[in-house]
Design goal:
By secondary structure, the chain is an alpha+beta fold. The chain has six helices and five strands, in the order E-E-E-E-E-H-H-H-H-H-H. The radius of gyration is 18 Å and the shape is globular.
Length: 218
Amino acid sequence: MSYIRDTAIVLKSESFREHDRMLTLFGKTHGKLRAVARGADRPQAKALGHLEPLSEVEVMIARGQSFDKLAVVRLVVAPSVRERLSVIAIAGSFAHLVDRLTEHQDPDERVYDLLKEVLTIGEDCLQDPSIERSRLLFSTASLRLMDILGYGPAFEEEHHDAGRLIKFLRTRLLKEALSITAPSQTFVSASQLIERALEETPLLVAPHGPVTIAALLG
């Protein structure tokens, strides 16, 4: 039996069969992985707290004929994003987008690093970002993901305030969007431009990030 060892971020955890969970992770070395955590839904399961979405974990996964199985898991970093509702909305929506846009076992350490950057954005928040700024943070992370995956759009509106804002944020650390000062409508316009670009990527359904952020923070 062969094994995969990696450090990964849990993108999704779903009930599977009676007491198991199906995990979707993004590994630093192996890219997107899926594995069954046997017995993880039992109340006494030791690994239950290590399998929450947005956790960073070290895993050993056993290859299987029907599906891979989680053999060993160790928590590296618990999801601190839970401390702020806005960051939960941003990080959860972005994890969903990464799952939708990436292929199984197509590794790219830049995607992993971007996920880590999104998950730590709460450490730089002195207070919860507004709805408009939260939406901009999600859109900026989405744009950088598109650039990494080869879907990055060209914006002709760079002479407008929204276009200039996008051009600035495109190559900056995500946390810099926390300190930018601009009218809220500029944030909204920039987010809308990026969201329209996302519609051109191979997504079967529109990303729910803007809707989730508005619903949780509105």
